[in-house]
Amino acid sequence: MKRKLSLMLVLMLIITIFVSACSKDSSTTDGSHSKGGSGDEKTLIFGRGADSIQLDPSKVTDGESIYVTNQIYDTLVRYEEESTEVRPALAEEWNVSDDGLTWTFKLREDVKFHDGNDFTAEDVVYNFERWASSSEFIYYGYMFGATDDNLKGIIENVEATDDYEVQITLSEPNAPFIYTLAMPPFGIASPKAVEEYGDDYFKNPVGTGPFIFEEWVPDDTITLVKNDDYFGEVAKIDKVIFRTIPDNGARFMELQSGTIDMMNGLNPQDIETAEADNNLEIIRRPSMNVSYLAMNTDHDGPLSEKLVRQAINHAVDKSELMTLFEGIGKEAKNPIPPSLWGYNDDIESYDYDPEKAKALLAEAGYADGFDVKLHIFSNPRDYMPQPKVTAQAIQEMLKEVNINVEIIESDWDSHLEAVENGKHDMAFLGWTGDNGDPDNFLYVLLDKDNAKKGSAGNIAFYKSDELHDLLKEAQIEMDQDKRTELYLKAQEIIHEDAPWLPIAHTTPPLAAHKKIKNYQPHPTGSEPFNLLDIEE
Amino acid sequence: MSLQPSPLPEPHATDQNSIYEHQGQSMWKRTISQLIKRKTSLIGFSIILFIVVTALLAPVIATHNPTAQSITDRYLAPSSEHYLGTDELGRDIFSRIVYGTRISIQIALISVGISLVIGVILGCLAGYFGRWIDQVIMRVIDVMMAFPSILLAIALVAVLGPGLKNAMIAVGIVGIPQFARIVRSIVMSVKETEYIEAARAIGAKHGRILFQHVLPNSLAPIIVQATLGMGTAILDAAGLSFLGLGAQPPTPEWGAMLSDGRAALQTAPWVVAFPGLAIFLFVLGFNLFGDGLRDAIDPRLKE
């Protein structure tokens, strides 16, 4: 079965090679057109490491998909340009009842979907009902506590009280609720388009955002064009092309030669080269992420033992690892980044001490060590620019304490599938905060509610009732000081149980041509490009 | 005295020496003298000898442990401490390349061994028995040849799973068609000769005719193909490792070293340059020698 699948994949690969070989012509002519005719049309070519998985943000969790959908969709409320404070978007104003259960949103009346239909309150209701219709709407589940038995989660009812007014009733108060609504997965899709395209909707996204989807050539380019009727600030550029160039170095060379205008996933060692280049500029995204090595506590064997997981934390020298991040990373000791409120700075990081690690392993009955597999992704991520090198460094450090690590490298898509299904012993992954709330890290990545095989956010499959109670309490609590207390406590529990080896918080560098103006990277990892401009 | 020019896993060669000693000796002598006359084949032979000696003496030659990391010493330029510099994890590139010769020779021998054994058997069967056996075998071979070798190898590794062992098997399988075709064509011509007819007349069985009479006559081109195949095998295996499908970290395989070092292509070019050079030398050595061998050993292929 697996072999047949692999063979099929290979055949598909061969076909894709042919197809992409054929399509190359069109993309190169596109590129030269944009350069030659820059007087009339402004095209931004954005280079990145991996293709989007789906262009339906409600069904994905990966940054590469959201990078694009951020351009196409609007949410009820949106984040400020530089922070996670919320501002009006599709909703002009909103208020919440005193018990924190009923939210009323007054919607804009001048909004049209890209397919020409008017945006009304019914469309909002339709979207909420869609997200609550199945567990494949992963983020809805993460953020609103939906389970297979209760697909709606805490959102009890969504009702159009008027053509342009929506009322959302919650079953319990939810402190981060309004911040959550600004997250890209809750972008409002055109109900007509969703119905029309059905299972193919993710390839034909229709929203209200500043750019309109035009074309998707898988593993090559995604093209968007300006939406002249956008209700907000109409885009300054006419076209955005997202190009997938998996290799960091190759992407950087394309930037140097001018075939792309901007890129993410810069190799840290290329920062210096870019800074020395008169045509290029380094733009640093504010840090709100974490990279980690998750230990699958669900597998019988050494990693299900707390002592072993603590030993692994003691066996890795993070200050050495940081050298590999070339100045863009800071050692992590907690799952949430220090830029977030509720960060517990009193926690003492597990010190690097191989002897102590060995002692702990012996205590757990693994004095002779053991063999373990580490799943890693091959492409760079903002929170981990060089996964393979980092993995090899950890491999060598764990060898010191007799743990033999076999590194299993796969592309982003297959990696996510493997880890979400719990096929790993250990795995690399990371997270960029979505809404500036600790809940978005701790509940999504470490609560037992999200340790479901198939859509796991908690890929350590770490199940602690004590932590669960705390996190649930913090969701309902509306007082921020009290919430802070709860999150400080939660981090202590996580530190003690050590389901992760937290690795780093990074300040991801982007590189762009100097002609790119007004680009403000958002801490959540991506942002709409409507304010960005190109000046030759 | 070993007259075999390269360390080939040649299963049929040794047991034939007694019967074909006279003919064999003269053939080998002629070959050697031809080889010595050609500068290119001598160069090729020297490179191979150099690589083999390096592999044998790797622990003596290497200055560092090939997998020992020292992250603070990463990307050091070549110096007297690190002859070829250090890589992204501060490992000594010189030592890694030296140990890499062992892996490369292992890959070359095992892959070519697989191609050779299976290819020769298939070629013999097809050529000797003809008819539908020939049809079936050769059509399968045609299908295999229709794919670019690296693509077929990727497909096979995708089925078998990544890893050095599987990469060697994949590269070995990909090399089968060359051997099968060469052996088949020779078997077809030899089996019509009078001495085979004579053997058949005195009641020799198929196996005896094939292995004692037909095969020894195909030895020369098989050896040539095996030598040339080593270069191709190492190139394909390096390609697989480059794509992350072959040798897994921290194995100091040259292709994997190339792949890991490319992040620093602009800032620390030595990380990729030297493994690349090593692959180049290895392939060059076997190709030069194989070419020379072909010209020397097989008068039919000359000119």
Automatic annotation (TrEMBL), chain A:
UniProt keyword annotation of Magnesium present: no
Bilayer topology: Lipid-anchor
Keywords: Signal, Transport
Domain of life: Bacteria
GO-annotated molecular function: peptide transmembrane transporter activity
Subcellular location: Cell membrane
GO CC annotations on file: ATP-binding cassette (ABC) transporter complex; periplasmic space
GO process terms (BP): peptide transport
Record has Phosphoprotein as a keyword: no
Signal peptide extent: 1-21
Family under the similarity heading: Belongs to the bacterial solute-binding protein 5 family.
Record protein name field: ABC transporter substrate-binding protein
UniProtKB/TrEMBL annotation, chain B:
Similarity section: Belongs to the binding-protein-dependent transport system permease family. OppBC subfamily.
Example GO biological process: transmembrane transport
Membrane topology according to the record: Multi-pass membrane protein
One Pfam family matching this protein: OppC_N
Species assigned in the record: Cerasibacillus quisquiliarum
Transmembrane segments annotated in the record for this chain: 42-62, 103-128, 140-161, 267-290
Superkingdom of source: Bacteria
InterPro entries cross-referenced by the UniProt entry: ABC_transport_permease (IPR053385), BP-dependent_transpt_permease (IPR050366), MetI-like (IPR000515), MetI-like_sf (IPR035906), OppC_N (IPR025966)
Coiled-coil residue spans: none
Protein name per Swiss-Prot or TrEMBL: Diguanylate cyclase
Keyword annotations: Cell membrane, Membrane, Transmembrane, Transmembrane helix, Transport
Domain ABC transmembrane type-1, chain residue ranges per copy: 101-290
One GO term describing the cellular component: plasma membrane
Protein localization: Cell membrane
